[in-house]
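Researcher: Next sequence.
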Amino acid sequence: EGEAGGARHMVDPSVEERLDRLNKALREATKLNDDTHAHWENRCEGAFSSFRVTVVHLRREQEALDSVEDKAGAWRFIVKFCRARPFLHDRCNEVLRILMKSDLWMKAFADDPELTLDGLPPSIIDEMNKRVREVDPEHPGKDQGDSASQPPDGPGPSGAAGSSPSASPALRPANMAVVVQRCTNAKILVDERTQMWGKIGRGLVISVSFTKGAKQEAVHHAARFLL
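Model: Next structure:
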């Protein structure tokens, strides 16, 4: 019985332990908010992955999630990450939908004047806008980003007042994830039947995963990002 109890403890950590892991992951993530661009690029995906896992593990523990102190720092990291990694928006949405259930988390977002909905995954902006307005009816919501992006009056490139050059909307690919890791050496199983492995020394390991619904445009975007 004692061994069984110990096994359950290992499999199911307490709420306090899960909350401690979340706070540790959040501290590492928020350090990147004002770090150098190089550090951000090298570490943001790992930091977000750790943060996402700890949030998911507390998705049914609203009181514990609400007790997190640095909600503003967390929101700044999430928004910055969404802008920087559009091909990971599916994973961002998973975190956002958990945090959106909390009025305290939404209030922290609404109270920070530096945060806007612009840059969040397009598929969730309307939901976020609704929740922000629920906790703060005076918040400009998504209109804040729209007004900031309006071109000024005056001759545009074509000479017409208020006109702007035509441009396709920003590509926000979903259903695809790319992870880049530096390595001193690495190997990958190429053929399980023959146990053939591919190996490299110092370099980069690029992992690409797809889910149902992934489109060719997402591949092009990821390729441009990597290059």
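Model: The longest helix spans residues 37-57. The longest strand covers residues 176-183.
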